[in-house]
Amino acid sequence: MAQAPATRVRTGTSGVLRRLRNWIDDVARRSPARLTLLVFAAIIAVVTALLSLPIATAANERAPFADALFNAVSAVCVTGLVTVDTATYWSFFGQVVLLVAIKIGGLGVMTLASILGLAVSRRIGLTQKMLAASETKTSGLGEVGTLVRAVIIASLCIEAVLTIVLVPRFLALGESIGDALWHGIFMSLSIFNNAGFVNLEYGLGPFVGDWWFCLPLIIGTAIGAIGFPIILDVARSLRSRRRRRPWREWTLHTKLSISTYLILAVGTVAIFAAFEWSNPGTLGPLAIHERVLASLVQGVNPRSSGLATLDVGEMREGTWFLNDALMFVGGGSASTAGGIKVSTFAILVLAIVAEARGDRDIEAFGRRIGSTTVRLAVSVAFLGATLVGIGTFLMLAVTQFSLSQVLFEVISAAATVGLSTGITPDLPDPAKYILSALMFFGRTGYMAIAAALALRQRRRVIRMPNERPIVG
Amino acid sequence: MAQAPATRVRTGTSGVLRRLRNWIDDVARRSPARLTLLVFAAIIAVVTALLSLPIATAANERAPFADALFNAVSAVCVTGLVTVDTATYWSFFGQVVLLVAIKIGGLGVMTLASILGLAVSRRIGLTQKMLAASETKTSGLGEVGTLVRAVIIASLCIEAVLTIVLVPRFLALGESIGDALWHGIFMSLSIFNNAGFVNLEYGLGPFVGDWWFCLPLIIGTAIGAIGFPIILDVARSLRSRRRRRPWREWTLHTKLSISTYLILAVGTVAIFAAFEWSNPGTLGPLAIHERVLASLVQGVNPRSSGLATLDVGEMREGTWFLNDALMFVGGGSASTAGGIKVSTFAILVLAIVAEARGDRDIEAFGRRIGSTTVRLAVSVAFLGATLVGIGTFLMLAVTQFSLSQVLFEVISAAATVGLSTGITPDLPDPAKYILSALMFFGRTGYMAIAAALALRQRRRVIRMPNERPIVG
Ligand SMILES: [K+]
Ligand SMILES: [K+]
């Protein structure tokens, strides 16, 4: 008699699980993009609920819904825009919730969907394999399990190294072991995942000339922003026999992304330093070596750590506009960075160079880039611009801030950067919802949205006759 | 004895002419784009010199160089941004110079280059034919002479009709026959060539509710902005036998451009009316029928007449931003309008729709659009965005105006629109030179610049192996 209900419950549970699994399989098969959005939205809902608990705030009071949602989205989308001060507004529990949200967001929603699929069905089905492959963007399907493991192990290792370097820095500042550990762990994850969250009551300002803190910040951010496919590719080439010139074995994607990233970073540092060198609100009052370090940090900031040691609000309007462009470009594909991605930007530039030269093919590093890739790059860039345009238009309508401030905030959200001219805490609720939507769309990817909205995947057999309209 | 010097002079002249012809032929053969820029720059130099004469100003004083250059570029590039009031600052002679500059600019630099070639060499050589074909963008080379004639005759006819309609309007206002004629002719050319210049001392404000003036303005602007290839295509279809459904014979370019133009115009009118309906600085104080008419004028304004019956400076910041996007898109190809062109915009949208749907081909109106066309569209849009970005960055550096005002001014110049939030007369000289460069590059075409800069036209025989980088 005690057996019967237990069996029934077990049957009931497995029935629910089976139905959930079937439903996920079904959605995944019909539209992987839609599954991405659903999973992401579900995680945000859970984090918002947890942040809405009174114990999540330092004052032990229920956070307003708009703030709980905004900061949940910001953490899961590893953006770093905050309407409240992370260090003082949230309790330790609240900060733990944010940190877990950052870790989940950083691992990427597609990897997560694959892990979820594993947990539910205790096997990686073909659809899950395809999902994971499309997120980490390797061409083969066989190594998905290995890849997910590699992603998790690599990220944990790098975060551990960062923690080991940073904890002594906080201890050296006279913090207790508990505080130093918590600050070190939180900041390490925030740095590697390009999350832009800061749980230090004193902020990052004191570290503006601190090489011990800023060098790990720069390196950790850059590794996180370049993307897992490139980390794995580089690691593979370093392990191979040809040790003297490992870059010869790199894929076109790795070569293209790293070179573009470096060019943009060097350019950013130079232009930023030139523009802000004598600005009394930013670099002006600092010593020379501090100005250099602050400019180096600024080189990785726009793509897309969001961890600023200088006051962005004090920078010149021209610097803001330069950052707008850099944030829009963003970091590497399948990384913790946002934006249209450096490879997308590089392909667009190469397409124009080829067009101007009159070349038939688009070439880079001795390889040809096909027209379907160009079309995808166009779509990503165009949808990104549309997202920013509509977001700016709506934000101008619901706030009283200037276009400079609004455009910066919108691109920062859409490219999941997390820098702000300082207007975030003063935004009205409708503006918080608009930015939340931008962060969500920015992280889940413009193409996922577009694919999710499309009702059909068509392969026409009959091709229409070709006709060339006039361009430009 | 009197014969000898005359012969010598004649020989000398024909020698100079021959060398000039050979030089032009040579430049045209090696780089048509470079010839375009040279011819355009030469025309601007002449107009600047004429405007620098004391008799060009009403006060009979020499205009400052920056103003003479700026207004010369604005007229030749049919933009309409002015640093001084056209009606009161310039003399009748100065206004005639501006009107001739507008007419030459409107006919298009390539058509002009072809005519120049005719005048110099008394024949249309193959290079000139190719030049003219590439400007008016018809595929055949045989009908260039006919085409140039058609362009000139069509523009003169439309300008004559506009003049016949507008002169009585000025007479009805109590103006003298001389004033009414001059105002009618100047405004007709300004309207059809989307030049944006106004030679009325009282401005366009009094006409905000005047259907007699605004309806010709709307229709004339729209015809001028849609482009000669489409005007000729429509005219051809109307003359043909199938009179009931003439649009069936239209080319893909005509269908694509007209439909995109109409969608954008209707959308602009609706959103503008919604945004400004109760704005006390713009539509607010007007009667309902006046608000409707003013909104209709605003529907054609951003692409790219630049003739505003309302005060742009009084519009909401959101309306400015909407106009930024519309001005960037611009009008039809090979027209008097600027921007990246509606067909370019349509191709980009179609490419994204195809990408989202998973289609192999980009299709419109039962025709397939090839990947080379997409690549060209990408190049034009990307170079346009880069031009606007660099221009905005520089303008922020040399002026104290807000990003809203600067971005509006820069896009207005780069897309040769001529609308302004009112900052043009207050710009410092460096800003005037920056805007002049933007108008010049905006009118001569981004691709011409890119092609001119390219050192070689390469057709590689060996193709590199294909490799697909990750995008987005
Ligand atoms: K971030
Ligand atoms: K214009």
From TrEMBL, chains A, B:
Keyword Cell membrane: yes
Spans traversing the lipid bilayer: 35-56, 68-84, 96-120, 147-168, 180-198, 210-235, 256-275, 325-353, 374-398, 433-455
Keyword annotations: Cell membrane, Ion transport, Membrane, Transmembrane, Transmembrane helix, Transport
Keyword Cell membrane: yes
Stored InterPro entries: Cat_transpt (IPR003445)
Membrane topology: Multi-pass membrane protein
Protein localization: Cell membrane
Protein name: Potassium transporter TrkG
Species of the source: Georgenia halophila
Upper classification of the organism: Bacteria, Bacillati, Actinomycetota, Actinomycetes, Micrococcales
